[in-house]
Structures are given as structure tokens and as C-alpha cells.
Design brief:
Blueprint lengths: L1 H75 L3 H8 L7 H7 L2 H8 L16 H18 L4 H35 L8 H30 L8 H12 L12 H68 L7 E10 L5 E4 L8 E4 L7 E7 L2 E6 L5 E4 L5 E5 L8 E3 L9 E3 L8 E5 L8 E3 L4 H6 L3 E6 L3
Antiparallel strand pairs: 1-4, 1-12, 2-3, 4-5, 6-7, 8-9, 9-10, 10-11
Amino acid sequence: MVLFSEIQQQQHNDSETTSYNREEEYRRAQQAAVEAVMVGRETLATTVQQGEQLQHAETLADETEYTVDKANRLLRGMTWSGWLANKLSKDVDSPEYRNNNNNNDDTNKRMSILGPPKAYAMVPESCAAVSQSVQNYHLNLQVLENCETDEQKGTCRLICNDMHRQARLKINDLLTATKRKNNNRNDDDTTNDDDKSEYFVLQLQEDVSSLRQRQFVLQQVQRGMTTTTTGDEKTNIFNKNTAINDTVIDNPSSTDAVTIQQEQHLNTITQHLQELGSLAGNLNISLHQQAEVIDSLDTKNETLHFKTNTMNRRTERFIKDKSWKQQKAEFSHYAWIRHQISGRYLSIAPNNNDSTLMLSNVLNERCIFGIWKRKRVFGLQNKYSRRWVGQSLLGQLTCSASAFNRREEWEADGDDWSDTTLLIVSAGWGTGGYLLLDKEGKGTQPIIGGGDLAIKKQAPKWCISLIHEE
């Protein structure tokens, strides 16, 4: 009898130890879930704040671009030709006017959680109905996003849920049928229509899952989900979740008590996992919006830098016109100029007056130019003919000037001339014109092109390499 009592006491102790370990494990798991939710909320709040800062930076970039455009227009109007050009052209639009009239669509797309509907190209015939159902689901989600009253949101939410269910059923049926066809297809069958259909259906399945996740995020946003956690909220969450395991149970060793405890634990973990999924969806959307703003900022900064250089170029030329004394040019070095793509050298053609420029396969004395610098601009004097490369009175590229004047001024990209575009400052009424090649860049005859940013991106790159004379 004594031995039997000892065995019962040991089993009872083991049961209490097991219960304690299980409760402690549940408590730790719930606390870890709470901590993950709090970190997610704080991360989302930081991400939203960073997004607002990026949008503010984009607004400042728009205002700065507007100021630079106004300054460029004012500088251009200080000459007779520029004054006439300003009279015949439209004034610069303010950033508010641009945003209200030209960029409304882009702004709505960036601020929307859903984004524009995806347009599917080359849809297989068997997938036409399914792809249409996915697009209809996306369109109805956009309607849900724009609903104003709670009644409208509730009705539209039910419609979206039904459309999601219908789309998933069609996708599953089509995917099953496509896989069955692929399994029954002969090995010598060379057609790949079924493979394309299966790939397209899998893409639709992924798109529907993404739209469903965005619907959940949209519903959380419409309900005003909290994105930050204060100190009091953290304490309440911890107390609430740890109190679950402190509930008094009449018979802690019974199977029902363990089951109830497990259900409470699973319910708590499920709630936190749902919130984590919603936070992850919001983070994905916020990061996607920030990526769009960053891309826009990159483009606007590049445009702003280009326009600022144009304004500085106009200002310097205007100051030179009003100045009594012209700054002297200083000789820097001799160099050859090579076209990066073809590897050919800029040279003067062997004609009567040696004034025509061309690309040469052979590096000789006609390809050597003296570099003369004057502040930001420089001049190119051919060593063989002693003539300067510049713009003629008719606007053509030539190497016939006997002196380094305004029409012979050139600019490069920064200080690194190993891979740069070349711009002649006098072209385009002071705007500048890039050195291009005829036959849409495939020829061997250098010409003067336009001076805007689009032309710069298409302009060929040149390598100006120093020649050390012995």
C-alpha cells in the first residue's frame, strides 16, 4: 500500500510539472507574439513617417524645379531672340497647377492601396473567362476602396468576397483541367499551348491571393487600425495574454481542462498572427509606395540638375556679354577624343580646308586636339590645322575658327572625361547642343543636336584621353 501511494504521488507530481511546463511554454509563446506585433506596429509607424518625408521631399523638388524654370525663362528673355521665344511660348506652370491638372492620375495610383488593374497580354483562349473574373474582382475592390458610408462598405465587401470565391473556383477548375491535359499529352506532341495555359493560371492564382491580402489590409485601414503601441497598451496586452493561463480551472488534471487551455492559447496566437499578416500587408504597400516616390525623386533630381546647369550656362554667358574684360583661356594638354561604342577617333577630314569633322579608324596627327580651359568651358584646337572646333554662323559643326570665341565653347560631364557627353554651349540660343552622329547615331559624321535631357540620354559617350608629349 505504501508503494502504491508513492507511485500515485509521483504521477501527480509529474502531471503538475507537465502542466506547469505547458503553461509556461504557452505564456512565452504568447509574449513572443505580442512583442512581434508591437515591433510590427512600430516599424509600420516609422515606415509611414518616412513615406511622408519622401513625399515632402518630392514636393520640394517640384517647387525647386518650378523656380529654376522661371529663372531660365527670365534669363532667356534678356536677349532679343529669347524675348521673342518667350512671347511665342507658354509660361511655366506652378507646381499646384501641375498636380491638379496633369498629375492627378499618378497621385491617385501612388496613394491607392490596390493600384491600377493589371492588364494581361497574350491571354490563352481557355483562360479568358478566368482572367476577366480576376479583373472584375480588382475593379470591385477599387469600388470598395472608394466607398464612403459603412452601409456601402458592407455591401461592397460581401460582393468582393463572393467574386473572390468565384474567381478561386474558376482558377482551381481550370488548373485541374490543364494539369490533366498535360499528364495525358503524348511526349511527341510539340504544342506548348497547355504549358502556357498552366503558367498563366498559376499567375492568376498568385494575383488573386495578392488582391485578397490587399482586401484584408484595406478593410483594416477602413476600420482605423492602430499603427502604434503606447506603454500602457503594451502593459494591457501582456496582462491580457498572461491572464489567460491564470484562469482558475476546477480540475486542472482533466483532459477537458487541457483542451480548453490549448484552445485559449491557439485563439490568442491566431489573433496575433492575423494582425501580423495585416501589418505585413501594410508594410508591403507602404514600401511599394516609397519605391515609386524614390523613382520619381531620382528622375526629378536628374532633371533639376540638368536645368540648373542650363541656368548657370545662360547666366555665365549673360555676364560675359556685359563684362568689359574677357577671361583668358589657358592651355591644359593635348588629347585625342574617341567614340566609346565604335572606338573611332574624332578627326578633321583630309579635304581642301580641313574644316569638316569625321570619325577615323586611324589615330594620327589629325586626331590630336589641344584642350584650352576657361572656367567651366573648354576649347578644342586641332593640332594639325591650328583651327578651333565650334559652331558656324549657319549652326553647323565645323573646325574653321581662327580664335577661341563664344561659338567654340564646349562642356563635358563633370571632371571625369573618360566617359562623357560633349555639349557645344552656343547651340540652341544658349541652351546648348550635344555632339551627335548622323544616321541616328550609326554614322561617322558628327553633328550638333538638341540640348534637352532626352537628347542627352541618347547622346553618344566620348573618351577624352591625355597625350603625354616626350
